Amino acid sequence: MQKGFVFDINKCVACQACVVACQIENLDLEELVSEEKWAKQIPWRNITIHNEFQHPELPVFNFSMACNHCEDAPCMSNCPALAYTRNQDFGAVIHQAEACIGCRYCTMVCPYDAPKYNPFTGIIEKCTLCVERLADGKKTACASACPTGALDFKPIQISPQNIEGFPETGIKPAIEIKKLHNDSTPKQEYNYSVLKQVDIIRELNLEEKKKNVLLSEWPLLIFSLLIPLLVSAFYASFSKGFALNKLGFIGTLVLAGVLSLGHLGKKLRAWRVILNIRNSWLSREILAYSLFVPAASLWLYYPRQNELGLIATILGLLILVAIDNIYRKAPSKLDNKYHSADVLFFTAFLYVAIFVSNPWMFYAAIALKVYLYITRKLSFKSAGENIRPVFSVLRVLLGFIIPAILFFLLSFNTVNYAVLILVILGELIDRIEFYMEL
Ligand code: SF4
Ligand code: SF4
Ligand code: SF4
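Above: inputs. Below: predicted complex with iron/sulfur cluster.
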């Protein structure tokens, strides 16, 4: 029977003994004594104190969490650089530091916040399940150090989880959780609906986390903003003769790629990003992009080569499919299958409509995006999430209403650059919100 963590929520007092034991077990002595090196350590195990601000209508409990060494680990299957391996003896998901390119995609697809990006080393660090201790017949260091018996490591039945407060992920984490006993806290009627949104946001530190995602992901935000625009412009040029400025197009295309490289913690290992074509949409995206750049550039100079134009168009489409799928792998708060910022059907469709001045395509794409945007905001509202009213108003006005009026008034036969710029601004706002929702 496989062993895994057993965590009893009722017993954890947030003493941090497991966190410290993990650091002692996994750091060099030199690193422990050097203050400078100590400051650069990112703990692999974290304690979350729920209801730190003692809100009277929320239960109080603590949660100790590291990697759960999931049976269907998305970090491993989605890593583009094949930096994760499985330890066959104990089922541990092991991160190989020398193979990691620091793209942080695993941090996005892990629902438990287990892979930690270390900005000082430029790579991910993660719990090793103390496999060397296990091989010696010992328990993991964190479980051994727990003074209350809240965290243990023993044989468990790995099954899909369905525990309140623990996300249902279907990836079979190797952990069992003992629920909060109903009689362990003072009797009270929890009425979540009366909580003001600001309290919940402060409680869970959500806004801070979203800001961090946005700051760390901005090169990808720019990449995913520019690529649908460029692929659509190329398609309009290939199929409808839209006049493209060759050098401007190629320069922006290359710039988008160079910018996205800036996101990697280990840029010299960037070549590894295409190693997991079999499973990772990130690998597929970068391979398709790397082939699209020469194919599209060559076609611009040899426009009679229809096969080349067709190949470039297919590669462009593949990049868009990959971009949407990369983000679909990230756990989402909402069930909505489609997002108004999805690049393939909605955004690229809208850009092509502008480039070829097709009113039917244009208004259909705007209508679809408005529908998706508003239904998403309504879902957020009913889930008690922040709907970001300023963003929403700007997005609808700049990205939908004004371009729709301008398109009607000004352009049916020529490309309207005022409409294009406003639509790009609207897409930028949508993209920013999209990253904030990750
Ligand atoms: S907890 Fe996260 S990092 Fe650990 S195996 Fe599961 S998905 Fe991967
Ligand atoms: S290469 Fe990227 S996905 Fe793979 S472990 Fe490193 S940061 Fe995570
Ligand atoms: S199993 Fe080992 S590496 Fe993982 S959190 Fe516990 S002490 Fe740290």
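Residues 359-382 form the longest helix (24 residues).
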